[in-house]
Amino acid sequence: MEKVDINDYILSHSDDEGDLLAALNRDANVNLLRPRMLSGHLQGRILKMFCRMLRPKRALEIGTYTAYATLCMAEGMEEGSLIHTIEINDEMEDFIQKYVSQSPHKDKIKVHYGDAMDIIPQLNETFDLVFIDANKRLYSKYYDLVFPMVRPGGLILADNTLWDGKVTEEHVPAADKQTLGILAFNDKIKADDRVEKVILPLRDGLTMIWKK
Question: In whole angstroms, what is the distance from residue 51 CA to residue 73 CA?
Protein backbone atom coordinates (compact mmCIF):
# COMPACT_ATOMS: atom_id res chain seq x y z
CA MET A 1 0.00 0.00 0.00
CA GLU A 2 1.31 3.44 -0.92
CA LYS A 3 2.40 5.52 2.05
CA VAL A 4 0.44 8.75 2.61
CA ASP A 5 2.51 11.94 2.68
CA ILE A 6 2.66 13.19 6.27
CA ASN A 7 1.59 16.73 5.30
CA ASP A 8 -1.41 15.38 3.40
CA TYR A 9 -2.31 13.29 6.45
CA ILE A 10 -2.08 16.34 8.74
CA LEU A 11 -4.29 18.43 6.48
CA SER A 12 -6.82 15.62 6.01
CA HIS A 13 -7.20 15.42 9.79
CA SER A 14 -7.41 19.19 10.34
CA ASP A 15 -10.23 21.60 9.56
CA ASP A 16 -10.76 22.54 5.92
CA GLU A 17 -9.60 25.98 4.87
CA GLY A 18 -13.01 26.71 3.37
CA ASP A 19 -14.10 27.78 -0.12
CA LEU A 20 -12.98 31.43 0.09
CA LEU A 21 -9.43 30.64 1.20
CA ALA A 22 -9.16 27.77 -1.28
CA ALA A 23 -10.17 30.17 -4.07
CA LEU A 24 -7.64 32.74 -2.84
CA ASN A 25 -4.94 30.07 -2.79
CA ARG A 26 -5.71 28.98 -6.36
CA ASP A 27 -5.83 32.59 -7.56
CA ALA A 28 -2.46 33.35 -5.96
CA ASN A 29 -0.83 30.27 -7.51
CA VAL A 30 -2.09 31.17 -10.97
CA ASN A 31 -1.63 34.93 -10.96
CA LEU A 32 1.07 35.96 -8.46
CA LEU A 33 4.83 35.70 -8.86
CA ARG A 34 5.57 34.32 -5.37
CA PRO A 35 2.49 32.37 -4.20
CA ARG A 36 4.69 30.39 -1.78
CA MET A 37 4.76 33.51 0.40
CA LEU A 38 1.16 33.07 1.53
CA SER A 39 0.61 31.25 4.82
CA GLY A 40 -1.34 28.31 3.42
CA HIS A 41 -3.79 25.79 4.83
CA LEU A 42 -1.89 24.39 7.84
CA GLN A 43 -0.39 27.64 9.10
CA GLY A 44 -3.71 29.37 8.52
CA ARG A 45 -5.55 26.90 10.76
CA ILE A 46 -2.83 27.31 13.41
CA LEU A 47 -3.14 31.11 13.31
CA LYS A 48 -6.90 30.78 13.67
CA MET A 49 -6.41 28.45 16.65
CA PHE A 50 -4.03 30.92 18.31
CA CYS A 51 -6.77 33.53 18.02
CA ARG A 52 -9.36 31.13 19.42
CA MET A 53 -7.14 30.54 22.47
CA LEU A 54 -5.84 34.09 23.01
CA ARG A 55 -9.11 35.87 22.15
CA PRO A 56 -7.25 39.05 21.06
CA LYS A 57 -9.28 42.25 20.95
CA ARG A 58 -6.59 44.02 18.93
CA ALA A 59 -4.13 42.33 16.59
CA LEU A 60 -1.48 43.62 14.21
CA GLU A 61 -0.15 41.93 11.09
CA ILE A 62 2.97 43.32 9.43
CA GLY A 63 2.90 42.09 5.84
CA THR A 64 -0.57 41.37 4.43
CA TYR A 65 0.47 39.99 1.02
CA THR A 66 -2.72 38.17 -0.15
CA ALA A 67 -4.56 38.54 3.21
CA TYR A 68 -4.70 34.73 3.59
CA ALA A 69 -3.30 34.85 7.13
CA THR A 70 -5.39 37.96 7.87
CA LEU A 71 -8.60 36.15 7.01
CA CYS A 72 -7.58 33.12 9.08
CA MET A 73 -6.89 35.25 12.15
CA ALA A 74 -10.12 37.20 11.70
CA GLU A 75 -12.00 33.87 11.62
CA GLY A 76 -10.69 33.04 15.08
CA MET A 77 -11.29 36.48 16.59
CA GLU A 78 -14.46 37.41 18.42
CA GLU A 79 -17.02 39.94 17.24
CA GLY A 80 -15.96 43.48 18.04
CA SER A 81 -12.25 42.70 17.75
CA LEU A 82 -10.01 44.25 15.09
CA ILE A 83 -6.89 43.27 13.18
CA HIS A 84 -4.78 46.02 11.65
CA THR A 85 -2.82 44.64 8.69
CA ILE A 86 -0.15 46.56 6.79
CA GLU A 87 0.95 45.97 3.18
CA ILE A 88 3.70 48.05 1.58
CA ASN A 89 2.87 46.99 -1.99
CA ASP A 90 -0.22 48.92 -3.06
CA GLU A 91 -0.37 46.82 -6.23
CA MET A 92 -1.81 44.06 -4.01
CA GLU A 93 -4.80 46.22 -3.09
CA ASP A 94 -7.20 44.82 -5.70
CA PHE A 95 -6.29 41.21 -4.82
CA ILE A 96 -6.64 41.83 -1.09
CA GLN A 97 -9.93 43.69 -1.42
CA LYS A 98 -11.36 40.98 -3.69
CA TYR A 99 -11.15 38.41 -0.89
CA VAL A 100 -11.53 40.53 2.24
CA SER A 101 -14.77 41.97 0.84
CA GLN A 102 -16.22 38.46 0.50
CA SER A 103 -15.39 37.40 4.03
CA PRO A 104 -18.09 37.33 6.73
CA HIS A 105 -15.31 38.62 9.02
CA LYS A 106 -14.44 41.69 6.95
CA ASP A 107 -15.60 44.08 9.69
CA LYS A 108 -12.76 42.79 11.90
CA ILE A 109 -10.11 43.76 9.31
CA LYS A 110 -8.55 47.16 8.63
CA VAL A 111 -5.99 47.19 5.82
CA HIS A 112 -3.31 49.89 5.70
CA TYR A 113 -1.12 50.46 2.65
CA GLY A 114 2.35 51.90 3.12
CA ASP A 115 5.51 51.46 5.17
CA ALA A 116 4.89 49.69 8.49
CA MET A 117 7.61 51.78 10.13
CA ASP A 118 5.53 54.89 9.38
CA ILE A 119 2.06 53.44 9.99
CA ILE A 120 2.56 51.54 13.27
CA PRO A 121 3.37 54.61 15.43
CA GLN A 122 0.13 56.23 14.22
CA LEU A 123 -2.14 53.34 15.25
CA ASN A 124 -2.36 54.31 18.93
CA GLU A 125 -3.34 50.78 19.99
CA THR A 126 -2.30 48.19 22.56
CA PHE A 127 -2.00 44.79 20.89
CA ASP A 128 -2.77 41.34 22.26
CA LEU A 129 -1.27 39.62 19.20
CA VAL A 130 1.28 40.66 16.57
CA PHE A 131 2.19 38.64 13.47
CA ILE A 132 5.41 39.68 11.71
CA ASP A 133 5.70 38.44 8.12
CA ALA A 134 7.26 41.21 6.04
CA ASN A 135 10.74 42.40 5.00
CA LYS A 136 13.19 39.98 6.64
CA ARG A 137 15.88 42.67 6.74
CA LEU A 138 13.71 44.72 9.10
CA TYR A 139 12.45 42.08 11.56
CA SER A 140 14.52 43.48 14.43
CA LYS A 141 13.27 47.02 13.74
CA TYR A 142 9.65 45.86 13.56
CA TYR A 143 10.12 44.06 16.86
CA ASP A 144 11.60 47.10 18.62
CA LEU A 145 8.82 49.29 17.26
CA VAL A 146 5.89 47.08 18.29
CA PHE A 147 7.22 45.73 21.58
CA PRO A 148 6.06 48.70 23.72
CA MET A 149 2.61 48.42 22.08
CA VAL A 150 2.14 44.76 23.10
CA ARG A 151 0.43 44.19 26.43
CA PRO A 152 2.12 42.03 29.08
CA GLY A 153 0.95 38.49 28.35
CA GLY A 154 0.59 39.31 24.67
CA LEU A 155 2.03 37.16 21.90
CA ILE A 156 4.30 38.10 19.01
CA LEU A 157 4.59 35.61 16.16
CA ALA A 158 7.40 35.88 13.61
CA ASP A 159 7.23 33.89 10.39
CA ASN A 160 10.06 32.43 8.26
CA THR A 161 12.55 32.31 11.12
CA LEU A 162 14.24 29.16 9.76
CA TRP A 163 14.46 30.75 6.28
CA ASP A 164 14.77 27.59 4.16
CA GLY A 165 17.39 26.27 6.56
CA LYS A 166 19.79 29.07 5.66
CA VAL A 167 20.01 30.04 9.34
CA THR A 168 22.17 26.95 9.94
CA GLU A 169 24.65 27.61 7.14
CA GLU A 170 28.23 28.17 8.30
CA HIS A 171 28.96 31.12 6.02
CA VAL A 172 26.27 33.59 4.94
CA PRO A 173 27.39 36.01 2.20
CA ALA A 174 27.34 39.69 3.15
CA ALA A 175 25.08 40.30 0.16
CA ASP A 176 22.38 37.99 1.56
CA LYS A 177 20.70 40.68 3.63
CA GLN A 178 17.50 38.71 4.21
CA THR A 179 19.25 35.74 5.83
CA LEU A 180 21.44 38.09 7.87
CA GLY A 181 18.31 39.92 8.99
CA ILE A 182 16.68 36.71 10.19
CA LEU A 183 19.88 35.59 11.95
CA ALA A 184 20.14 38.93 13.76
CA PHE A 185 16.47 38.76 14.75
CA ASN A 186 16.74 35.20 16.07
CA ASP A 187 19.80 36.12 18.15
CA LYS A 188 18.04 39.23 19.44
CA ILE A 189 15.01 37.23 20.60
CA LYS A 190 17.21 34.56 22.17
CA ALA A 191 18.94 37.24 24.28
CA ASP A 192 15.77 39.15 25.26
CA ASP A 193 14.89 38.27 28.86
CA ARG A 194 11.66 40.29 28.68
CA VAL A 195 10.08 37.41 26.76
CA GLU A 196 9.69 33.65 26.65
CA LYS A 197 10.22 32.16 23.21
CA VAL A 198 10.19 28.99 21.15
CA ILE A 199 10.71 28.32 17.43
CA LEU A 200 8.18 25.93 15.92
CA PRO A 201 9.52 23.92 12.93
CA LEU A 202 6.31 24.72 11.05
CA ARG A 203 6.76 25.33 7.33
CA ASP A 204 9.62 27.85 7.23
CA GLY A 205 9.82 28.37 11.01
CA LEU A 206 7.37 30.22 13.26
CA THR A 207 8.69 31.85 16.42
CA MET A 208 6.32 32.32 19.35
CA ILE A 209 7.34 35.20 21.62
CA TRP A 210 5.37 35.74 24.84
CA LYS A 211 5.80 39.08 26.60
CA LYS A 212 6.30 38.68 30.35
Answer: 6
Average pLDDT, whole number, for the chain?
A: 96
* pLDDT score of 24: 97
* Residue ranges of the chain with per-residue pLDDT less than 50: none
CA 117 to CA 176: how far, in whole Å? 22
Q: In this structure, are residues 81 and 75 in contact, taking their beta carbons and an 8 Å threshold?
A: no
Which domains are assigned to the chain? Answer: 6-211 (3.40.50.150)
d(CA 186, CA 180): 10
What torsion, rounded to 10 degrees, do the Cα atoms 116, 89, 177, 190 define? 40
Tell me which DSSP letter residue 14 carries: S
In this structure, the dihedral spanned by the alpha carbons of residues 80, 207, 147 and 46, taken in order and rounded to 10 degrees, is 0
- Closest CA relative to residue 131, chosen from 153, 163, 111, 156: 156
Measured CA to CA, the distance from residue 32 to residue 40 in angstroms comes to 14
Phi, psi of 114 (to 5 degrees): 145, -165
